[in-house]
Specification:
Spore Coat Polysaccharide Biosynthesis Protein SpsA, Chain A; alpha/beta; 2 domains; 8 strands; about 280 residues
Length: about 280
């Protein structure tokens, strides 16, 4: 097992997604893999533990959000590098090794690398400096990131990687996209879909966006909470279908809640608008 890299992934009802997208990779003995289960309400923990006993499955007692769960996994790392991956990525040992090699050969002051996860970003080009990358796949140099800190635990969902990238650059470190490494992102299939969950995720999208902008004093005429609230509320009335109207209404209500001073988590530690 290579000691220079630990793989971290956050799971919520995601056993079937892992088995579909990660089957060959989870059979690897080359890298340590830590899966943080975010209080799945199905039998994901049992399935993953039974299928892959050589890897570490950390079970949270409640759904603590993506950033907090990722932090729990990152705190277990003793390697120099940690690769945070979503379950809905088509992962292979070869691609992970290619990304790690890119990082180890990097002579710049780089703290975060990300592969291409869309065909639009995939090319044979060299790695390029970028302001922010998707949280679906992020490779960290832990020696540098320990100076930055990891995900802001005030956020339940959304904008956590944008906030982390912003703080990384403020510390003087570089973030790079690696277009020559393509890890395909299948899409938002890593949790069950129903209306209450969609509304909750939309609520946190709006709340987290405002939290990030306010935290870093990035409000502008375009990104003003009152204007964003009015825009999403308007869209919630004119949306072409029920799903879009529900999504916009959730985003608007999340923004409204932030302006009222509400937090992303309730006093009991559960996320706002939790369907369970």
């Amino acid at each position: 097992m290579v000691s220079d890299l630990t793989i971290i992934s956050v799971s919520y009802n995601s056993a079937s997604v892992f088995l579909s997208n990660w089957k060959s990779f989870l059979d690897t003995t080359r890298y340590k893999i830590i899966i943080v289960d975010n209080a799945s309400i199905d039998d994901s923990v049992q399935i993953l533990s039974r299928s892959f006993p050589e890897h570490h499955i950390l079970k949270s007692e409640s759904n603590i959000g993506y950033g907090r769960a990722a932090n729990e996994g990152l705190q277990q790392c003793r390697s120099r590098f940690a690769l945070l991956l979503n379950p809905d990525l088509m992962v292979s040992e070869e691609l992970v090794t290619q990304l790690l090699t890119t990082a180890m050969e990097d002579e710049d002051n780089t703290a975060i690398w990300a592969p291409a996860i869309t065909k639009a970003d995939f090319s044979g080009a060299q790695s390029v400096s970028i302001k922010a990358v998707s949280g679906a796949a992020m490779l960290f140099d832990l020696q540098k990131m320990n100076q930055v800190g990891f995900f802001d635990e005030n956020i339940f969902l959304y904008s956590e990687e944008t906030d982390l990238c912003y703080r990384t650059r403020k510390k003087g470190y570089v973030i790079k996209l690696c277009p020559s490494v393509y890890i395909e992102h299948i899409g938002d299939s890593s949790s069950a879909h129903h209306h209450s969950l969609l509304y909750m995720k939309s609520w946190h999208f709006g709340w987290s966006r405002c939290y990030y902008l306010n935290k870093h004093s990035l409000y502008s005429q375009k990104y003003n909470p009152h204007r964003m609230y009015r825009n999403y509320m308007f869209k919630s009335y004119i949306g072409l279908n029920r799903i879009n109207r529900l999504r916009y209404r959730g985003q608007a209500e999340g923004i409204k809640a932030f302006m009222r001073g509400e937090k992303a988590f309730k006093a009991d530690g559960k996320p706002q608008q939790s369907p369970v």
